[in-house]
Write a structure and sequence with these properties.
The chain is built from five helices and no strands. It is mostly helical. It has one domain. The protein is globular and about 35 Å long. The chain starts with a helix and ends with a helix. The model has no long low-confidence stretch (mean pLDDT 94).
Length: 74
């Protein structure tokens, strides 16, 4: 499943809310943005989860948000 397919699921907003409540989430997101994506820009959610030892759901939310932050806004 692609990130876009996960976002279309009914439970996506609940997953995002849950992940945002996790204490280490901001640090995992910052480390992913500042270090891991520079090393491997095409990092998959499964690779991120494995590298950081985090749940797949957290990895999905992190990568989705970072991908959307990188898009230029018109």
């Amino acid at each position: 499943m692609s990130l876009e397919e996960y976002v279309k699921e009914k439970l996506w907003p609940i997953l995002v809310e849950t992940v945002h409540a996790m204490v280490m989430y901001p640090y995992h997101k910052a480390y992913t943005r500042d270090v891991l994506l520079h090393e491997k820009p095409d990092l998959t959610p499964h690779e991120l989860a494995s590298r950081l030892g985090i749940p797949l759901g957290e990895a999905l939310v992190i990568l989705y948000e970072l991908k959307n932050e990188a898009k230029p806004r018109v």
